[in-house]
Amino acid sequence: MKIFKNCAIIIYIFVFTSILSLEKNYKKQNVVSLTKNELIDNNIKHDSLNLYENQEKLIVSLTSYPDRIKYVKLVLESLVNQSVPYSMYHIVLVLAIPEFPNKENDLPVNLMEFINKYPDLIEILWYERNINSHKRLIPTLKKYPNNPILICDDHIIRKQWWINMFLEDHNKYPNDIIFGASNQYLTAEYKWESYKYLFLKSEAGKLNAIKNMIINTGKPMNGFGGILFPINTFTDKRFFEEDLLMKLSPSSDESWQWCFNIIENKVLRQSSKIYDYSKDIIRNSQGTSLYRVDDTNYDLILKNLINEFPDFKKKLDEKFKLINYKYCLCTIVNDKYVVGFETMLYSFYKHNNWFNGDILVIHDDKYSVLSNESKKGILSKFPNVKFLKINTLKYDKVNMKSITKRFIPPLIKFEIFGLIDYDKVLYLDSDTLVISNIYELFNRNENLICITNHKYSVENKEIWNNIFNGKRRTEINNGVIFINKNMLDKKHVNGMLNLTLKYNKSFPFYNGLPDQDIMQVYFLKNNIKVTLVSNIYNTVKTVFYGNNRKITDEKIIHYVNLKPWKSNKPKYKYIYDIWHNYNNELNELYTDKIKIENETKT
Predict the structure, then answer these.
(1) Looking at CB atoms within 10 Å, which of 365, 370, 383, 514 has the fewest?
(2) Co-location of 383 and 505 in the same domain
(3) Which Pfam family is one of this chain's hits (predicted)?
(4) Distances from the Cα of 505 to the Cαs of 111, 285, 401, 512, in angstroms?
(5) pLDDT digits over 354-398, tens only?
(6) What are the DSSP E strand ranges found in 444-569?
(7) Beta-carbon neighbour count of residue 206 at 10 Å?
(8) Interior/surface letters 482-511, b for 16+ CB within 10 angstroms, e for the rest
(9) Model pTM?
(10) Count of Cβ atoms closer than 10 Å to residue 326 Cβ
C-alpha cells in the first residue's frame, strides 16, 4: 500500500510538472514578450514607461480578402511579437461576410488556431458589406470611436519597434496624424509627383526621408508604412457614407482618408523613423495589393473628390496660392560653405515641404569656387539641386584697392537680380538656418523685400527708403532678400557692378561691406522702393550672445561672422547648438538613407 501511495505521488508530481511545462510552452511567447515588454529596453527612456501606463489603448486594424488571407497569420505573428506590452494595444482583423460567407469556417485553419491563442489580444470583426480597402478603418472606427487607430497592410511583416514608434510619436504629437511612409504629393497643377528633395529610393517609389516632417499636400501610404489616427480625426459625417465612398474612391481608402484630412485641416506628420517597408513585404503576396493603384486611377479619384466636395477644392486652393508662379530658392556656395548650405537647405525643406520650385546654387571658377567633388556630394543628398556657373570676368574690374579679394564673392549676390526666368526669387545666405515655415514670403507681392539690422524694429510694409538715415541700425542686411518679377532685370546687375568701380571710403554710407553698401546706394539712387519685413526673417546670431535670449518667433537665423561649423565659442553655445542639431539630423538622415538603400540592393 505504501509503495502504491509513493507511486501515486510520483505520478502526480510527473503529471503536474508536465502540465506546467505544457502551459509554459503554450504561453512562452506571451510570457517572454510580456516580461520583455514590461521592462521594455534599456534604450527606452523612463518617460516612455509613463506613456504606456497612461495612454489609451491603441487599436491596430487590418483587413484582408480571399486571395490574401493566407498571409495574414504571418502578419499577426509580427504584430503579436512587438516590443510593447499587450495591455497597450488590441488587434482587429476586419473581414467582409460577402467574401467569407461561412465566416471562421472559410478561414485557414492555421490562422484560426493562431487567433484563438490570443482571445484578449486579437479579434475578428465581421462586416456586413464589402467596402474593399476601406474595411481597414471604417468598421473599426465605428466600433472604437474613442481609441486611436493604427491601420496596416495584410502582407507586410512588422518589425518589433513598429507599434512602439507610433505610440511614442503619438505621445509627442497627440493631435497629429502620424504616418510611416509617403511617396508622392500633389503639385499646384493638381498632378501627383514623387518627392524631389531628400527622398529614400525604394521599390515603392521615392519615400519622404525627413523625420517628423509635416507634409503639406503629401499623401501617406496608409497601409504600407502604417498610419495612426488620433481620436476625433474624422468628425465629418460624409466620411462614413459608404455608398458615396464606393462611388468616388472604391479602390483607394488612403485617398478618401486624405481628402477628409485636408477638409478638416488635420496635421499629417512623418514618423520619427524612416524605413523602407517594401523590404518586409511577404514574397509573392503583392500581385493583388490593396495599396497598389496606378496613377490613372489616382487622377480619376482625385477628380471625383474635387467635383463632389467644393470644400476640399477650396482647401487645396489655399495651399496652392503659388500655382501660377515659377519660383526658386537661391544662394551662393563655395567649397568652404558646402556644409553650411546643406544644413540650410535641409532646414528649409524640413519646414517648407510645400516648396516645389528650383533650388539654385550660384558659383564661379575664380571667386566662389565649387569643385565637382563638392557638387557630387551635394547631389548625393539633394538630387535635384541646380547649379549656375557665372562668368565673373566682369568682377575682375572692381576697385581692387577698396574691395579686397575676400569681399568679391559676396558681390556675386548681385546676380540674383538677373534670374529673369523666375517670377519669385528668395535669396538666402548659405550661413542661415530656416527654423519655421516661410510660405508667406513667397506669397507677397511687393517688388523687393529686405530686412534691416536687428536693432531696428519695423512694421510690415514699412518702406526702408523712408526711414534709412545712414546709421547702422537702419542698414539692410542682405543675407535674406525676396524679389518679385518686376525687379528681376539684368540692368540691376550691371548697375550695381558699375558702382563697384567707385567704391572707396568716401562712398556714401561706407561701412566696409561692399555688397551691402553698394546695394543700398543703388536702391536709393534709382528710387527703388524696398519693403521691410520683421527681423524674425533674418535674426543675426549676435542677439543670442551670452546664451540668455532664447528663440521665440524667429524664422530665419543668420550666423554672421564666425560659423558654427568652424567655431565653438561658449558665448554662442545656445544658438550654435541649434545649428548643430539640424546638421546632425541631416547627417543621420543621409547615413540611414545610404544604409537602407544599400540593404535593398543586396
Answers:
(1) 365
(2) yes
(3) Glyco_transf_8
(4) 85, 75, 10, 8
(5) 888 999 999 999 999 999 999 999 999 999 899 999 988 888 888
(6) 448-450, 462-463, 480-484, 531-532, 539-540, 556-558
(7) 19
(8) bbbbebbeeebbebbbebbeebeeebebee
(9) 0.78
(10) 13
